[in-house]
Amino acid sequence: MTSPRKKNDDAYSIDFFDEDGPACEAHAPAFAGLPGGSEVPERLAGLIREAGPVRAAYRIAPLSIDRGVATLGALTLPGATVATLGLEPGAAFPFVITAGATIDALLDSLTDPLERYRADCLAVARLDGALVRLRERIRAAHATGPLALYLPGNAPEFPIEDIARIIAAIGGAAARLGLRLNDSGTMVPLKSIAGIFLPAAREMDSCEICAMRDACDRRR
Predict the structure, then answer these.
(1) What are the tens digits of pLDDT across the range 63-81?
(2) Helix residue ranges, H only, the chain
């Protein structure tokens, strides 16, 4: 198991390999109902593993709350967010996770729609697994209390534009992972996540209040 490594700009980095947690094949329930059922072709699973680790970077940033409004550097979370997530003042952890450009290239190279869909499910499953393990590593490394997960775009009060502010909060560590925003505001590589783990009264994911929760097979 890898431990967070601190860089010169006070950011921490972690590489997540398949052996860090359940194999990505175990996290693809969307395969059920497809031709071939839930079985994952070994060739695809091997290609995904050979793409290398899922990489993450995060920083420690103080979260202050004044009259119901939470502030984290240049990022402001409105009162609705503070109340919804039960936020408390303390150490917050803006982070980015990426499966890297190799995965994007692999998906682009697959011409069979079903094969590409299966590979996409595996890549997303690896990201989701790394997200779960990142919270565990942060909690262990920094002796935190409960952490609520904030993901921009999950609800109206969580604007997708906050992704740019989170990446800015990570600083040079995001660039070292090869992560950037294109002109339309989409993260590149595409298989990437930006969010914040926030001090809260209880463990909570912003998925719990996402407007698309009932229709999403990735809900937590």
Answers:
(1) 999 888 888 887 887 777 7
(2) 42-50, 79-85, 101-109, 113-142, 162-170, 172-176
Domain count for the chain: 1
For the whole model, what pTM was predicted?
0.85
Output 30-36 pairs: Cβ under 8 A, ≥24 positions apart.
30/121, 30/217, 31/118, 31/121, 34/114, 34/117, 34/118, 35/114
Q: What is the pLDDT of residues 209-220, one digit of tens each?
A: 655 555 555 544
Do residues 61 and 93 lie in contact, with contact meaning Cβ atoms separated by under 8 Å? yes
Q: Is residue 48 part of a domain?
A: yes
- Looking at residue 220, its pLDDT comes to 46
Sign of CA dihedral 86, 87, 92, 96: positive
Q: Are 76 and 69 in contact (CB under 8 A)?
A: yes
Query: Which structural domain range is residue 176 located in?
Result: 5-215
Query: Do the Cβ atoms of 119 and 45 come closer than 8 Å?
Result: no
Confidence grade of residue 60 (pLDDT, cut at 50, 70, 90): very high
What digits encode the pLDDT tens for the residues 120-153? 888 888 888 899 899 999 999 998 989 999 888 7
Task: Name which of 201, 103, 96, 98 is nearest 152 in CA terms.
Answer: 96
Nearest to 82 by CA among 191, 198, 176: 198
CA 115 to the chain's CA centroid = 24
CATH of the domain at 49: 3.40.109.40
